[in-house]
Design brief:
Elements (H helix, E strand, L loop, with lengths): L2 H10 L6 H14 L6 H14 L6 H6 L2 E4 L2 E4 L7 H15 E3 L8 E5 L2 H12 L6 E5 L2 E6 L2 H11 L2 H51 L7 H12 L5 H6 L7 H21 L1
Antiparallel strand pairs: 1-2, 3-4, 4-6, 5-6
Helix pairs in contact: 2-3, 2-5, 7-8, 8-11, 9-11
Length: 272
């Protein structure tokens, strides 16, 4: 089963406590669903209609559901969603009617398809009441209310009551964050290692050049001892080089002497 199907299965089982919540969810199902209503949405519509003992498509029911008609078609009077619990129920119904959410292992994308701009705007406003930012994009002849931020999708799953799916998504997000952190650390360590290796190669090249042109006795004693140690220990870090000198030398001191050796080698190259 897809992650989207899992979420819808979970939302199908959730029934609002108050009659007002049931009406709000039913209003969303009636106004948001099209002729190709998914089975879960259709079954939820039938279940809520039975519990409320109304035919959602007759004129009296539309009054109870606060369904109104404007130039774009049927939508809702916001009186049906004055309470937060009713807003949650409305979003739940809207998602069952026209929503989908991508498997978080692949990407983060939540959307609800609306057949009019007015419905999309109402939905975005309701979602915003929970401090979640949704956007609208036109796709063919439909208006899509969508969210691409992983943490906001998690928050909206919580708003709708899909707590099991929420935990599944959080587990995926945690795993992704750990993997990304490890990859960043490995990449950083690899970059530092490459930088260290490149520096050591250059140091050895400079020392070999001095040895070839003048011999290492050309170097002052303090530089010659470091040059010999670097030649014998090409993979040793600056800290370890310093600790193996007599007397021991700190990292900055080793770095300073290596720069001096490089300057001498460059001077010999210029004069060659």
């Amino acid at each position: 089963m897809s992650f989207s199907g899992q979420v819808k299965d979970e939302l199908y089982e959730i029934i609002g406590n108050g009659r007002h919540c049931k009406l709000a969810e039913l209003a969303a199902l009636v106004t948001m669903a099209d002729d190709d209503m998914e089975s879960k949405a259709g079954k939820k519509l039938e279940k809520l209609s039975g519990m409320l003992n109304i035919n959602p498509y007759d004129d009296e029911a539309k009054k109870a559901l606060k369904i109104v008609k404007d130039t774009t078609g049927y939508t809702i009077d916001r009186m049906i969603i004055e309470k937060n619990c009713c807003k949650q129920a409305y979003i739940r119904g809207a998602f069952l009617a026209g929503g989908s959410v991508t498997d978080p292992k692949k990407s983060y994308h939540f959307e609800i398809v609306c057949n009019s701009i007015r419905k999309a705007e109402i939905l975005v406003d309701i979602i915003k009441d929970f401090d979640i930012e949704a956007k609208i994009v036109m796709r063919k002849k439909a208006y899509v209310c969508y969210i691409k931020d992983g943490s906001m999708i998690v928050d909206l799953l919580n708003v709708m009551g899909a707590h099991t799916s929420l935990m599944d998504m959080e587990n995926v997000r945690i795993l992704k964050d750990v993997r990304n952190t490890v990859n960043r650390k490995v990449n950083c360590e690899t970059a530092n290692l490459n930088k260290t290796v490149s520096a050591a190669v250059k140091q050895i090249e400079d020392i070999r050049y001095i040895e070839e042109k003048k011999g290492l006795k050309y170097l002052p004693d303090n530089l010659r001892s470091l040059a010999l140690l670097r030649l014998s220990e090409p993979e040793m870090s600056l800290n370890d080089l310093g600790e193996n000198l007599s007397p021991p030398l700190g990292k900055s001191g080793v770095n300073h002497r290596l720069r001096k050796i490089s300057e001498i080698a460059n001077e010999l190259r210029r004069n060659n």
